[in-house]
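PROTEIN DESIGN WORKSHEET
SECTION A - STRUCTURE
LENGTH: 451
TOKENS:
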């Protein structure tokens, strides 16, 4: 994902601040009705199911990853409400973007600007589909669990010991801006997927990889002793300088992975994961909530959230709710935050249609901004208040119905700037020492990346 797209203006939408949406959190029907209206508005931004559209692509100004995130929210919508009206476009998109034969979410039309985090958001959507028993694809198509395994496998071999003692780079290919940046979201997504694959399959290798990633992230300082998760670090400086900006989705992606690890461990190890989960909840509460209402602290106060950042609250909401299922002792810590935020999010929805949701949930009305990210934020936090009425994630031994493939996605990366052959482990080791075409500047205490 990128960090330079400008904020969508409100000029194309009449600035009529119609009344806020009615939401009664004591009524499941009210939550479902509100979620449906917000989801329909979100899907209205999607051209991929229209004549001439490409399934899975939102188009400008949205990057490819956010479409994967959006379809993840529609899987959540079905999970929470049982409403199937968006299932067909969701399955179509998730299957169209797989990139056969590797089936690892590296489609050729995206490879020239593909980051590990971009790929992972599609993989996490597939992982969610497996966990909640979203209707399986046809038998002749890739299956949800296998798609998540394909993303994991393709990323596991990118673990890079050439700098900083390990970790994943932000970008996959050397010629992309950001290749020298090792960031929290790319490594956090891998940690999240690894933990969840371990829980689903029972294969300890996934847990080992999750633990390895957590240990590296904390050792290098991307997450500090107070469980603040920082954006990333420059491997040209051997990761000695941190970009200390904090984003809500970074906290969330580690929170849910850590909660899964708590769920699947025992004894002292489980106690350690409990401390980590508690620490991340405390850090999130301190950094991303004001009067229990969620806000993107690094950009909302200054009203300069870009297109990517306008969607980040959706993922913190998603993973906070999921955490309550795998670590039930977190319920009373997290649900008051989700409930207060849902009420505030509903009040942010207005516009001429009354269902156009804004960025700022703190001001009690629609702020004039709009887009996929704003709709997704409101959708996820509102539907998350149905978490107590649904079952938790399944696995192979607990009712899972998705078919896996432990070898999926192991064909190697296909570099779009090189001859069409699989990149081997020895190739990758050599590529790790090449000079990358990226500048990550450290100006005035902030990092600035250009897409």
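SECTION B - SEQUENCE
RESIDUE ASSIGNMENT:
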């Amino acid at each position: 994902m990128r960090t330079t797209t400008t904020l969508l203006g409100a000029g194309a939408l009449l600035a009529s601040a119609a009344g806020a949406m009615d939401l009664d959190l004591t009524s499941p029907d009210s939550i479902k009705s509100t979620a449906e209206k917000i989801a329909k508005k979100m899907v209205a931004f999607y051209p991929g199911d229209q004549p001439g559209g490409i399934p899975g692509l939102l188009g400008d100004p949205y990057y490819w990853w956010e479409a994967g995130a959006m379809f993840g929210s529609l899987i959540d919508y079905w999970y929470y409400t049982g409403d199937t009206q968006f299932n067909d476009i969701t399955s179509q998109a998730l299957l169209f973007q797989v990139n056969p034969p590797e089936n690892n979410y590296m489609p050729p039309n995206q490879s020239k600007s593909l980051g590990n985090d971009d790929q992972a958001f599609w993989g996490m959507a597939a992982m969610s589909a497996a966990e909640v028993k979203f209707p399986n694809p046809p038998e002749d198509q890739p299956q949800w669990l296998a798609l998540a395994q394909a993303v994991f496998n393709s990323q596991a071999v990118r673990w890079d010991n050439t700098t900083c003692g390990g970790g994943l780079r932000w970008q996959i290919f050397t010629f992309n801006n950001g290749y020298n940046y090792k960031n929290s979201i790319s490594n956090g997504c891998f940690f999240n997927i690894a933990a969840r694959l371990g829980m689903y399959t029972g294969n300890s290798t996934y847990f080992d990889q999750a633990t390895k990633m957590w240990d590296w992230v904390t050792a290098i300082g991307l997450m500090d002793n107070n469980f603040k998760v920082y954006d990333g670090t420059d491997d040209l400086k051997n990761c000695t300088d941190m970009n200390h900006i904090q984003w809500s989705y970074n906290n969330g992606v580690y929170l849910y992975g850590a909660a899964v690890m708590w769920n699947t461990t025992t004894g002292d190890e489980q106690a350690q994961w409990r401390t980590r989960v508690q620490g991340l909840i405390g850090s999130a509460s301190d950094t991303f909530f004001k009067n229990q209402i969620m806000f993107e602290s690094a950009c909302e106060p200054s009203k300069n959230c870009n297109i990517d950042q306008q969607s980040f609250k959706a993922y913190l909401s998603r993973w906070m709710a999921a955490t309550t299922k795998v670590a039930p002792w977190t319920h009373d810590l997290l649900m008051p935050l989700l409930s207060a935020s849902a009420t505030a999010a509903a009040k942010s929805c207005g516009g001429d249609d009354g269902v156009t949701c804004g960025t700022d949930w703190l001001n009690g009305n629609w702020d004039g901004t709009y887009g996929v990210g704003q709709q997704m934020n409101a959708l996820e936090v509102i539907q998350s208040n149905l978490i107590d009425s649904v079952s938790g994630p399944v696995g192979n031994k607990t009712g899972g119905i998705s078919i896996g493939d432990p070898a999926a996605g192991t064909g190697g990366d296909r570099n779009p700037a090189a001859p069409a052959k699989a990149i081997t482990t020895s190739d990758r080791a050599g590529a790790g020492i090449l000079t990358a075409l990226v500048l990550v500047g450290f100006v005035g205490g902030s990092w600035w990346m250009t897409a």
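SECTION C - NOTES
The beta strands are 181-183, 232-234, 242-243, 289-290, 293-294, 349-350, 356-357, 441-443, 446-448.
The longest strand covers residues 181-183.
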